[in-house]
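Annex B. Sample input.
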Amino acid sequence: MLHTKIIDLKKEKIQVKKAENFVSSSKFGASLIFKGTVRNKNDNKKVTGITYDSHDAMVIKSFEEIYNEVEQKLKIKDKAVFIEHVKGYLGLGEISIIIAVACPHRAETYILSRFIIEEIKKRSPIWKKEHYENEKSEWLKGNPIQVN
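Annex B, continued. Sample output.
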């Protein structure tokens, strides 16, 4: 049984190569890298960037809980998981979150990656403030935090 993880909240830019290296192993037959990036439009508004803020300790705790639930809920034992989320300002196209996973088989990697991002969106106290072309900004309404 292989259990490996890196879970972090960063104030600097995400390094994709670090995630790729972490999940690269001949022990696994499949790996996936999910990158969430800042897009240029939301709700018909031209976005110029996003500022992310978070309750750091609770975010790390939620990432840990999500990781720890994988074996019980998804029955995935052998895995490598790398999660990083940025805190602070990001411009268009920059990476806000990276989730890299590796498992022995491809079906497990798809399920695992999707489970992690969906649970983070539901449970992690991360807020985003969009900045718009007209120099206005607004905090976006998020999902109510779900506690398991």
